[in-house]
Each structure stands twice: as structure tokens, then as C-alpha cells.
Amino acid sequence: MAIAYSDKPFKVRLAESEQDTFMQKAVAKAQDAQWTKRTASRNELGHWEQWRELGQQIRQHVVRYLPDYLEEFADNAEKRGAHVYFARTDKEAAAYIRELAERKHVQHVVKSKSMVTTEIDLDQELLKIPGLSLLETDLAEFILQEDDWDEPTHIVFPTLHKNRDQIHEIFAKIGYKGDNDPQHMARFAREYLRASFLKADMGITGCNFAVADTGMVNLVTNEGNGDLTMAIPPTQVVVMGMERLVPSLKEAEVLDNMLARSAVGQKLTSYCSFSSVAATGESDGPTEYHIVIVDNGRMNALGGPFEEVLQCIRCGACLNVCPVYRHIGGHGYGSIYPGPIGAVLSPVLRGYKQFGDLPFASSLCGACTETCPVKIPLHSLLIKHREVMMNELHMDTGLNKVTYKALGLATGTPAIFHMGISVDHSMTALLSHHQEPTAQNYFMGDGIMSKLPFILGGWTVIRDMPRPPRAKDNFRSWFKQHKQLQEAGR
Amino acid sequence: MKVVIFSTCVVDLVFPNVGKAMVEVLERFGCDTELPSRQICCSQITNNSGYVRESQKVMRNEVDSLLSIDADYIVGPAGSCVNMLKEYVVRLRDDPVYLEKAKVLAAKTYEFSQFLYYVLGVSNAGAELDATATYHRSCHMTRLLGERHSPYALLARVKGLKLLPLPNLENCCGFGGMFSMKEPEISKQMVDEKVDSVLATNAQVLISCDPACLMNIGGRFNRRGEKITIMHLAEVLNHNVDMSRVTYVKDDPLTLAEWPHDAGMTAELIKEA
Predict the structure, then answer these.
(1) B193: which chain A residues are within 8 Å (Cβ-Cβ)?
(2) Any chain A CB within 8 A of the CB of B97?
(3) Contact flag B9-A468 (C-beta cutoff 8 Å)
(4) Which of A127, A141, A342, B125 has a CA-to-CA distance to A361 between 20 and 30 Å?
(5) Distance (Å, rounded) from C-alpha A109 to C-alpha A116?
(6) Which helix H or strand E contains B132, and what residues bound it?
(7) Is Ligase given among the entry's keywords (chain A) (predicted)?
(8) pLDDT at position B258, please?
(9) Burial class of residue B24 (count of CB atoms within 10 Å of its CB; 0-12, 13-18, 19+)
(10) Does residue A350 fall inside a structural domain?
């Protein structure tokens, strides 16, 4: 699956997500639970705002000196015996790994969770090899794979949209005979997966942070599958986004700490590993180690107005606080990167033609910016995307464009605005009706508007609108009379 | 002291009573109010829709109008719009003349509850409202302006008012300016959850410091046929006032009168500018 996994128009995806009440309840419940856990684990650390500043500084520094750190990391990794490959596109990255698998006559591949391998559609590329078996070993990714490669809804909790009964059905297809108890199902998955680790001849992982001065790869997981994937198969492939670097172990420690608290509300994940090629005399670890560093559009952001998006450490906290994500879920976005970070990142990676709707799917409430552990100004970047689309690319056409230009003119020209508020009451006569309102103290202008034309129709399709007051009753007129009375009283 | 009223377009267009109440409360506590007539809108409606270039003229008009009267303070009844005025230091930074004016504007502009509580030092405005109510904490006022305290402190001292906690108060009501019209499918689900949360409190009155949020939530309440009374904080504080009840922050042992200087993302932006 590539970044975009749906050709359906945005409005169709929205309509589908609105029907998916199970998903909505699951997301709301997860968001509320994460709110408590995340807040508690951050408070326990203390001085959270200062930690955020530190996180931001580390990430900004790395992005600013990205070419240098990439070079340092690649040199040090190669010194340890790793092969480093820079892939400009998703296709180049996937092809490199497929060719490697072919060259090594790989039969069984195990993978641990990695968004970037989903981004480059690696699974499907490898499955082109006749006779090759591939298994996602992260429990949630395993469920998605066994459900005919269903799309993930969250970058940290990919199966947030599935309940235990749905998972029970999926597992029954591969031989599970037990009930729908999550513990029993997890035990089944564990046993099922364990055998595949032992026979695997290639392991593929993502990368949370690549440590430049040691050339090692840092992975944080909770299930232990990542470590088995790294330790057992003789050939190891690490796929990483090109911005995923830290200068040294010191910075990795800071960011791992913030990542675990932000992503899952834990002090630290159960496993936090640093890996490389097996050293001489070591009993486990890969003998052949490949690191694929993926650009795939990230360079578009470097040096431009969206550079800050490269600071992201993929914790998913912005999804967990987003009131839009809460209702439309991951599938509403149609990108493997959903939520606020996805709405900023997806158009950077794949352009506005594919993802131009996403920056508008936000009320700009700022919850994302507030929670981001590395202080990416997400809601401001969403406005920036809108600006690029409207002011630079002129993507708005026809009536919409005319409406906004007219709005700009009316709100910037006192004469027009004054004329407007002096006639708005009479002009809205035909659009208004009388009705006993249930919302009190709301309709001050003697009438309710329930069906407005043009873009205002988007308002009244779901809510009523107060009719503007008569010119003599509006705030400006009242203030004038009020001051005259005050003068008279003096 | 002389106070310029930043009326906001929503108050000018649909909610005159909010403006009236704010003026009456401020005058009660000794402010001499003025309303510059050329002011219109903070420009969020166009700027946040991506029409950034077109919004520059709107912002410059607002700056010139609000600074046209030499006043000590500028006070507005909407957290979101007041925050936008403060953000002008970033949005007008490419224009040296207006950047300087924007800094002056940012330094003397206050949201109504902040002004009343921190500047005028009023903790009990003397109001009485015999009702149960819940408070909607608007996103921009909370997160960008960084104000989490003053409305609650003022409401806590209104005689007869029982304030009930709103579940999931951190979630946006689904207004978001043009978002409410451009994405009604999403906005509807957000405002419905907000309406449900308000209903779950059984409160008779919904209070906020942002008229636009109230316009959104109130409009949805009415469409669903659910009963509610919508009030801006200024209207609550202007209700059945008895000056003998008035207390000041300095004399009120219960208040926490610390000005949140370092709170809010906009304070950071201003510092950087």
C-alpha cells in the first residue's frame, strides 16, 4: 500500500466514516484513555514544556544539518559492515530490497512494524517473488495482513477500527479455535508468529532513530517482535525515512523518552534496542545488514515553508487529540499518514492533487500543536498549505474564489461593511422565517435563517443562523445612542 | 481609563447584546469606552481559508482603526479574534510600518474576561443569575491566548449560578471559521458531540467567551430542537448586578491573580517578534 490507498473522493470517504459508528466509538474511547495516560506520564517526568523545547531543538538541529548527519551515519554504519543505500523514490527503495531478496534466494521474510515500508509498498513488491512468504509480526499489522491487507487507521495503533469479534473472525480463517478473549487471541498470534521467526531468512524493520555517531539503529517496540526480527534472520534490512536521525545516544535517550510518553503514555516501551551487524564473536544478529534511506518526497520540505514537518518523531499524539480524527478516523484521510501530521505531511510528499482536501479538514483548534512533543506548529502549517493552494496555485475557482475575494473586500473596506450592516436585516427577509426557538437568547434579530444560499448553505445544512438585527438595533447603532444619552446626561 | 471596544464582526452582525453587555460592564467599573467606526473584522475568515494576501488589507484596516483613538486599552468579547489581533505581529511582519503598529496593538489588546480580571482586578462583578450553567472553553482562547483561568474565576462568584463541569471540554465545537461551512459533514459530528456533552450536564445555560462558538453550538441546538439558553460571559456578568457584591482580586483571598505571561502559543510568537 502506498501513501494514498484510496481513489475515492474525500467527501465519499467522509460519508463512509460517518456510517462507521464502531470506529468512531473506538477512536473516541482510545483518545480519552490516551489523554489520561499521556498526561500522567508527561507530568511524572516533570517540566514537560522544557522537554518539548529540548526535543524541538534536537530535531531542528538535525534537519538543519541533515546532509552532514546522513553522511556521518552512513560512514559509521558502513564501518560496522552495513550496506547503505539512498533511495530517491518509493519504487527505488522497494526494488532494491526485492533485488536483494532475489539475490539471496530469500524464502521467508518477517517484518516488524514500520510506516515507511507501508509508504513504499514493500510488502506487495516482495510478494511478487514466486514462492516467497512474508509475515507482519507486529500484532496489529499481522491482523491487517490476515484481513487481506486492510488499511491502517493510525500510525501507532493501526487496528484501532477493529473490535475483538472482527479480529476473532480474521483469526478463525487461519486456524484459531478459541473464543474472542483478547488474551487468548494474542497467545494464538504469538505462537503462530514464533515459528516464522525461526525459519525466516530475512528480517525487515523500520527505524525510530538512526544514531549518527555510532552508526546504529534505534528501535522502540512493545511486543518484542522487533527484536526477534532483528536477531534471528541472517539478512537484515532497515528502512528509514531520511530525516530519522539523531546526533548521538544522548539525543536518542531524550527522544525515546518523549516518544514513549507521547505515543502510548509509557515511561519507556518494553523494548528499546540499538542494533547493527553482528560483531565478531556475537552469537546472534545478522551477518548481512542493509540500511535503505528513503527520500520519497521528503526533500520537498527541506528549506521550504514546511520544513518543520521533518521534525516529526511519529508518536501519533496529534492524532490522539484531534477532534476531526476523532470522528472521521484514519480512513477518512485516505493516507497512511492521517490526522494533523498526515494532513500536513501527505501533501508535501504527494502533492495537492492527491491530498489538497486534507489541509482544509481541520477546524484549526490547535490541539495538535499543543501536544506535539517536538513543537511542530501543525495548525499553522495547515494554514500555510491553504495559502499555497489559494494564493500561489490558485486552486480555488469560480464561485468560491469570487466569494472569498468579495469577503476580503467587504471586511477590508469600511464603506462596504457599513452599507452591509445597514441593510443586512431587510436583505435577509426572504431567507428568514419565524419559529419558536429552543435556543434562547440566540435569535436577537427577529427571525431564524434555516436555508442560506451559496457557501453559507454549508452552515444551514446542519444548523440555524440568527437573522441580523434591524439596523437601528445593531451594536453600532446602540453604541451611538448610548453615547448620545451619556452626553445628554452630563 | 479610556478603552477602545474591538466589536468583532460576529457581534456587529448577529449578537448586539454581547457588545452591549460588555460595554455596560466595563463602564460600570470606570472605563470610558469608544468604538472606532472603521473597524470590521480580524481577518481570520479569509486568512485562515488561505486567502492570506487578500487579508493583509483587512488587517491593516483593523490596526489603523483600532489605533485611531488614543486609548489605554483595546478590549474585545472574543478570545479567538483577540488572539488574531495579537498574531498580527507575525502576520504583518513583512511590512515594517505595520509591524511596529502591530506590536503596539498586541501590547494593549485584551480579551474581555482577562481585562476585567487581571487589569481591572475585578473578581466578583456583582452579578446574579439563578441557573445551572456550563462553560465552553474555546480553543483559541485556551491554547493560543493561553487563558484557562479568568472566566472560571469570574463565573465562580456570580450569585446563584451553579457551574457544572463540561465533559471533554478540550474538544473543539466544530466551528473553525469557514471550516463550518466548507466541511459541514465533519463539523456536524463535532458540534453534535458538543451538544451532547452540554446536554449531559443538564445545565440550563451555556456560557462562553467566544460568540462564534456560541453561534455554532446554539444554531445546532436549535436545529435539533433541544432546549438551551446561550449566554456570553459579559451577559452573565451584566445580569442583575448589585454593586454591594463587588469584590476585587486584591481583596479576595480565593483568587489566583497571577497573570499567565508565559502561557499560550501567541505569547511565544510575540516574544520572538
Answers:
(1) 326-327
(2) no
(3) no
(4) A141
(5) 17
(6) strand B128-136
(7) no
(8) 44
(9) middle
(10) no
Q: Is B240 on the interface with A (CB under 8 A)?
A: no
With contact defined as beta carbons under 8 Å apart, do A135 and A145 qualify? yes
Q: Distance (Å) from the C-alpha of residue A407 to the closest C-alpha of chain B?
A: 7
* Shortest distance, CA A115 to any CA of chain B (angstroms): 26
Domain boundary among A255, A272, A300: A300
Rounded mean pLDDT, A102-116: 97
Size of interface A-B (CB pairs under 8 A): 243
Do the Cβ atoms of B132 and B202 come closer than 8 Å? yes
Per-position b or e across A2-37, b if 16+ CB within 10 A of its CB: bbebbeeebeebbebbbebeebbebbbebbeebbee
Measure the N-to-C terminal CA separation of chain B; round to a whole number of Å: 28
Which of A256, A272, A300 terminates a domain? The answer is A300
C-alpha cell recorded at residue A171: 483469526
Residue A323 lies in a domain: no
Predicted TM-score (pTM) of the model is 0.96
On whether residue A240 sits in a domain, the answer given is yes
To the nearest whole angstrom, how far is the Cα of B122 from the nearest Cα of chain A? 24
Q: Exposed, middle or buried by CB within 10 Å (0-12, 13-18, 19+), for A403?
A: middle
Average confidence (pLDDT) per 10 residues, chain B, 273 residues: 97 97 98 98 96 96 98 98 98 96 97 96 96 97 93 94 95 97 96 98 98 98 98 98 95 58 68 76
pLDDT at residue A398, as a whole number: 83
What is the ipTM for the molecules in this complex?
0.95
- Write the CATH number for A261: 3.40.50.10420
Q: Where are the beta strands (DSSP E) in A201-359?
A: 202-205, 209-211, 216-221, 235-241, 245-246, 271-275, 288-294
Residues 164-183 of B with CB under 8 A from A: 168, 170-172, 174-183
User: What is the total count of domains within chain A?
Assistant: 2
Among A441, A461, A478, most B C-beta atoms within 10 A, so best to mutate, is A441
Residue A329 within any structural domain of the chain: no
What share of chain A has pLDDT > 90, as a percent? 92
User: Is the pLDDT reported for residue A157 higher than 60?
Assistant: yes
B9 contact A CB<8A = yes
**Partner-chain residue, chosen from A414, A455, A459, that has the shortest CB–CB distance to B61:** A414
Contact B50 A464 (CB under 8 A): no
Task: Give, in order, the Cα–Cα distances in Å from B41 to each of A91, A411, A421, B88, B90.
Answer: 49, 6, 13, 13, 17
**Do B220 and A404 count as a contact with CB atoms less than 8 A apart?**
no
pLDDT confidence of A445, banded at 50, 70, 90? Answer: low
Q: Tell whether A291 and A407 lie within a shared domain.
A: no
Grid cell locating A174:
487461519
Smallest Cβ–Cβ distance between A438 and the set B168, B177, B226 belongs to B226
Q: Could you tell me if A292 and A409 lie in one domain?
A: no
C-alpha cell at A117: 515500508
Residues A155, A302, A60, A276, Cα dihedral to 10°: 60
Cβ–Cβ gap B50/A437 under 8 Å: no
Mean pLDDT to the nearest integer, A197-212: 97
Helix, coil or strand: residue A281: coil
Q: Which residues constitute the domain of residue A85?
A: 10-300
Average pLDDT estimate for A296-323: 97
Residue A410 has pLDDT above 90, yes or no: yes
Q: B229 is written with which cell numbers?
A: 439558553
Give the H or E element holding residue B75.
strand B73-76
